[in-house]
Amino acid sequence: MVAASAKLTPDQVAKLPSPAAKQVEFVRDVKPIFDAACVKCHGKGKDKGGFSLETRDAFTKGGDSGAPVVAGKSAESLLIELVAGFDPDNVMPKKGSKLKPEQISLLRAWIDQGAKWPADITFKKAQVNNLLPRKPELPSGEQRNPIDRLLARTVPEITNAKLIDDRAFARRVYLDVIGLLPLPQELKQFESDNGADKRERLVSRLLGENRRYAEHWLSFWNDLLRNDYRGTGYIDGGRKQISAWLFSALMTNMPYDRIVAQLVDPTKESEGFANGISWRGAVNASQVPPMQAAQSIGQVFMGVNLKCASCHDSFINDYTLADSYGIAAIYAADKLEIAECDKPTGKFAKVKFLYSELGDIDTSATKAEQRKQLATLLTSKRDGRVTRTIVNRLWAKFMGRGLVDPVD
After folding, report:
1. Which helix (H) or strand (E) element contains residue 176?
2. When comparing pLDDT for 113 and 227, which is higher?
3. Is the torsion defined by CA of 181, 186, 191, 197 positive or negative?
4. Single pTM value for the model
């Protein structure tokens, strides 16, 4: 650990606000100051100047300029020198309101009293609380379908609605599953069927028509995976189509987890999705192919929009530039320099997964192994996020609106 480097003169020390004359508690007195003035640059995944205060240990270790505090000696602590603002070119926080004298007094007293910090208090990004799968309790009810029983509690207007007639049901099911209306003879045959389970049997029969199912759902997945048939990428070979692979996956009823795995850790036939578009001419840093991979994987499979965080730390959620570059680095051929608002920073991306709660990616592994690890994390039975995101997309396809909206 590098020693603190505060260099206040005796005159400057005399001008400092005196330490608060009360017993300071970290949660009550210090944490609110850090939350308001420091976390934006040094917490929630950010470590400007190599300094992070996400945890007590990270704070104590310090950054490029040394340790921030000398416990018991606030006047010799770098933190106090920086927030006091004697040097206008080196004052913290650099953005926003400067600390008030009473806040500096609290920090001085906290340091003088030993800089105590409960180990369970952190400034990490808020943990996403819906990552792990969970099995909801199924309510009782007359509905045979468990989904109807769940919806009866929250959307009774759906489950209490009057059943539509056979003709309308058949038309809707045909359009949903294979994208075509029933032929007149098919419709007549269905109407004349007196079996109590004829609707279930119709759905099963249509789902079994693999070719017609694949031809219809190919458009849905083409849109999601940006497997378009025109544009710059096709003029000069800038994007490789995955149409044959995708059609085969749908025709053979490939499970969704295998579809995700083969797109994230691609085969020769499926690599166009992760490889993205190689644009002709100059393109900004947030649209280079590795960053396209990060954005597409986040948006399509996790319902996470990383486009803001591909240019700078997002203003609308907790995702940071380091998060986007952490995924992008897996798909970069060489070291990937981080650019903030399209300006090179001289720093290089460190491979990381968005949700460390599910596991990490070995930074020393080969690119091929890292892609395999990413696919394993995404399709792990511990990851309920991908499952929910795909279900949400299918629900939006059928119902016109996702259970969570917007779906991206």
Report:
1. helix 166-177
2. 113
3. negative
4. 0.73
